[in-house]
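Most newcomers find our protein records easier to grasp once they have seen one. A record pairs a protein's sequence with a compact description of its fold. An example says more than a description, so a record of this kind follows:
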Amino acid sequence: MRLTLRLLRLAAREAMRGRWLIALAVTLAVIGELLLRFAGGGVTTVLSLLDIALIVTPLAGLVLGTIQVHHAREVTELLLAQPIPRGRLFAGLWLGSTLPLAAALAAGLLAPFVWHGMLLGPGGIQLIALVAMVVLLTLVSSALAFVIALRVDDRVRALGVAIAVWFVAAIAWDGIVLVVALVFADRSVELPVLLLLVLNPLDVARVLLLVGSDAAAMLGYTGAVLAKTLGATAGRAVLALTLLLWTVLPLWWARRSFARKDF
């Protein structure tokens, strides 16, 4: 345990050295402050931050995680030459890369609300749920970044794959769902659309935060199908289980890739 914590501190210090995390937290705080001033605060501001968080979080996790793995390649090879279990080394490196990013994102989202004393006001519960969802998505995206970086040795190519994964999940996925809905227009589309929903953790997080709330217009096509097919309560249970699997499986995949990697 001491070894893992020591490695975590070293990896976290390396992650903080580039000041990207500070810039990211400040940017989110500024955006939140502007939304509070112009949108009036409350649930409206939280919903606006939701769209921003669902774009920024996976992008930051995939890009920074991929860069971190390749940047620490020489240190990793040096540590593996020592009698250090690979499992502990992976835990230290992954936590050192993931926890500072999750903390920076959470601090950036919470800062303007804390500054104005609105954390316990209207939309406070939704804000806490949004921050928790951002932390989970950071774990998922960082684990996927480790998988990509460990399987693609070239740095530029690995970064390109990471950005492509983000683009498909955050930008192009709604278009894919629309195409599927059009192709199956004369058939029952519930099963294909629900399958597409669970295959994208960003969709899962968005619908989980919004299903059963007053913001039904932001659910999107997949969320509307889920609410109609399963209902709000059963839908939440399915989405929560799906997001848990999206948190565990990529982490298991990343650890397995690290254990099998020939450095």
